[in-house]
Amino acid sequence: LDLDAALRGPGPVWGAPVPPLARDRRVCVLGLGELGGEAARMLATLRFSVRGWSRTLKTIPGVACHAGPAGLRAALEGAQIVVALLPATPETENLLDADALALPAPGARLINAGRGQVIDDAALLAALDAGRIGHATLDVFRAEPLPADHPYRHHPRVTVTPHTASATRPETAAPEVIAQILRAEAGNPLRHIVDRVRGY
What we know:
By secondary structure, this protein is an alpha/beta fold. The protein folds into 2 domains: 3-167, Rossmann fold (3-Layer(aba) Sandwich); 169-200, no CATH class. The chain is built from 7 helices and 7 strands, in the order H-E-H-E-E-H-E-H-E-H-E-H-E-H. A 7-stranded parallel beta sheet has the order 3-2-1-4-5-6-7. It is globular.
C-alpha cells in the first residue's frame, strides 16, 4: 500500500496514491506451518493472489502451494510482497540469498517475522541499495538485540522492529499448558511437538 513511504512524510504533492486491489497484489508466504499457513489462508480470504512455499507440499484453499528448490523459485518469482515465517534450520540458513532476492518483482516488499538466519544480510542490503527490494520490514535478526551500528538500523528502506511480531502471554499460554498436561496424563498424543532433527 506504500504506507511506509507515507509514514516518512508527504512528498511535494499532498495526497495518497490509489492502492492496488488485493487481487492485483502477488504475495509469497515462505513457511506454511502454524503461523505461515494461517497468514496465507487469511491473505487468500482477503483475495490477495497468494503463493506459499514449505519444505513439504501443503494444500491450502486459495493458495498456490510449492515445495522444494524448484518450488521456491516458482513461489518467489514476480512476488510483490514476500512474507518469511520460516524456522532457523540448516536448510533455511541464507535461503533468501542474492539469487532468491532477484526473483520477486522489482521493488518488492519483504517482511521477515520468522528467524533472522533465513536472510543473507549482505545480499539483502545489496538488493535494497539497488532497488530490487523496495523495502524490508524486519522483526528478527541473527543477533538480538540488533547492534546499534548494524546497517539495517540506518537504511532508508528498512523498518526494524524489536522481535515484537508475537509474544507469549500467560492468559493464552496457560490454558494450552494445562491442556497438554491433561493430554499427557490421559495417555493422549501431545500437540505442537518439536522435531529435534528438523529443528521445528
